[in-house]
Structures are given as structure tokens and as C-alpha cells.
Design brief:
- The chain has 222 residues and is an all-alpha fold.
- The protein has twelve helices and no strands.
- The longest helix is centred in the middle third of the chain and has 19 residues.
Length: 222
């Protein structure tokens, strides 16, 4: 491939990551979605994952879901118990409050069911576009693009988009990325970002895309 990632070779690029990532650690929310097929678990796991390492998120999610796996049973635990179960995720006190608020709203306004609409999901405390799009894509199998720091950084590093923030990246990808790749795009790029394409000094010597990546913004690599 030429040193460029664009519409013409994005399918090949994603295919390479898909093949290589079989031996990498899969993002924890993806594992939650595959194993549980529960929009509620995807929602709560994503809330827990914000600014938290995957390993910590996985352990906290397992502890919480072992005791409560529905909005009603989470409420029965109470905020203090939820806080203890999810510790030491980042901002665990705030996240415990948000989880209780989410469960109260689900029961009070949605009959305990997680809505499958972006606009509705954004009404929940602690839920932004990243979380909402993950629920839609991984929880419901709907075509949505979740843009986190990895997706934003790598898409720009490739030169596939030229954007200033995750929202602009999401909008640009909706215009450019073939719809059939929307759901898996986040999981593939998060895996790549965690293993190789790191924010500072990425491991370009180990990257299967080194020959075609323009490495925009990379001043130092390994």
C-alpha cells in the first residue's frame, strides 16, 4: 500500500487490524457486549470505563454485576454499596452517583429498559456521545460510531480525517467511513491504540500499518 490511508484502502487497513488484533487484549466493553448481549451492562461498563484502565474496569464491572445486573437490583444495593463495589475506578464516587441516577431514570421513565435512541441516552446523567454510541452499537447492534481518544487520535494520525475534537471526528467519519465498518471501528482502533499506536512515542516499528501510515503529528516513535 502507498503511504496514505483513505477511502480506497480503508477496508484493507481495517482488515489488517482485525487479523492482528486477534492476539491483542480486546477492549473490556466489547467483551461485556459479546458475553452479555445486554445494553444495560454495556451502559454501566462504559460509564465505569471513563478515565479508567481496562483491567480495573473489568474487575469493577464483574464485582457489580455479580451482585446486581438490572436497574432495580442496583438500586436495591444503594449508593454506598455501589461505590464500594466499583472502587478503585477513576472518580468512583461520582460514578456511583451517576449509576444510581441512571437506574432511577430507567425505572421511572423507561420501564427499566435502556433506550435505543441517541437523543434519549444523552438525557442520562454522566452519559455523553461516546457512551451513548457504544450502547447503540455494541448493545443494540445499531450503526453508530463511537469516538474516544484513540479513535480521534488515530483517525487523524492516519490522515483519514482532519479534525480538532471527537465530535468533529464523529461527524467526519459518518461522512467518509463505509457504514458497514461503523460498529467495529471503535473496538479495532482502541485495541490498536492500547497496544501499538500510543499517544506518545507509538510503536511504529511493530505496527502492521507502518508502510501506509503517514504518521501525522508523530515527532518520536519506537
Amino acid at each position: 500500500m502507498t503511504e496514505k490511508i483513505d477511502r480506497n484502502n480503508i477496508a484493507e487497513v481495517l482488515g489488517i487490524i482485525r487479523e492482528q488484533s486477534a492476539g491483542w487484549n480486546v477492549p473490556v466493553v466489547t467483551l461485556t457486549a459479546v458475553s452479555s448481549k445486554s445494553p444495560f451492562r454495556v451502559l454501566i461498563s462504559t460509564v465505569l470505563s471513563l478515565r479508567t484502565k481496562d483491567e480495573t474496569t473489568a474487575q469493577a464491572s464483574e464485582r457489580l454485576f455479580r451482585e446486581a445486573s438490572t436497574p432495580r437490583t442496583v438500586l436495591e444495593l444503594g449508593e454506598n454499596r455501589v461505590r464500594n463495589l466499583i472502587y478503585p475506578v477513576g472518580f468512583y464516587r461520582v460514578k456511583a452517583q451517576n449509576i444510581i441516577s441512571i437506574c432511577e431514570k430507567l425505572i421511572g421513565e423507561y420501564d427499566g429498559q435502556v433506550p435505543d435512541s441517541l437523543d434519549e441516552l444523552l438525557k442520562f446523567r454522566g452519559v455523553g456521545r461516546k457512551t451513548a454510541n457504544l450502547v447503540l452499537s455494541l448493545g443494540y447492534g445499531k450503526f453508530a460510531i463511537c469516538v474516544d481518544i484513540h479513535v480521534h487520535r488515530i483517525s487523524n494520525r492516519w490522515g483519514y480525517v482532519d479534525t480538532e475534537n471527537p465530535y468533529e471526528t464523529e461527524m467526519a467519519l459518518q461522512e467518509k467511513l463505509p457504514r458497514k465498518y461503523w460498529i467495529e471501528y471503535n473496538s479495532l482502533l482502541v485495541a490498536l491504540g492500547q497496544q501499538i499506536c500510543r499517544p506518545v512515542s507509538p510503536l511504529c516499528s511493530r505496527c502492521p500499518l507502518s508502510g501506509c501510515c503517514p504518521k501525522r503529528g508523530v515527532s518520536r516513535s519506537r
